[in-house]
Specification:
Helix content: 40-55%
Strand order of the largest sheet: 2-3-1-4
Largest sheet: 4 strands, antiparallel
Radius of gyration: 28 Å
Shape: elongated
Amino acid sequence: MPDTDLTTEAAMKWWSLYVEMAVPSFAPDIHEEVMRRLARHHAATTTGHDERFAIQLTVNADSLAAAVAAATTDISDALEAATGRHADPVRIEAMTEEEFDAEQEAAARAAAVPELMGRQEIADLLGVTPQRVNAIARTAAWRAAVVPVQTLRNGALYLADQVRDFAASWTRAPGRPSKNA
């Protein structure tokens, strides 16, 4: 006969919850005490909207409703033990741990610095000299397709994706350009 605790745990999911309580944020020592009391939930406290006390934690439960109930009870108990004050939740965001991880990864990708190219990288991609890149960058086709992200003392930096798109449609004329061009 299987162990019922293991069977029950296998049917349960991990949930990530962000909860704001109906009290203002506290001094750092209160935050630390609440996190200590909620260590089994891997809790992290912060200051939420309107300067309210807020906490991010994980809960193992078989449903969203059970996760919310467990989290809010444990948070309220920890806050009351740490401060002597009762507080109710006023905002709750909950999702499965898989959804939370995917959301965090997407946010990290969005915040990441995009790949950039300078004059030398563009010259290597196009098979021209860096001086020729300067001339190409003055053409209407280049200005329509590629926008500088930043201009430094060494020259402009461009989004690599825009440069690659330009390169895919660019037709290199053979030989040196005419002096009248």
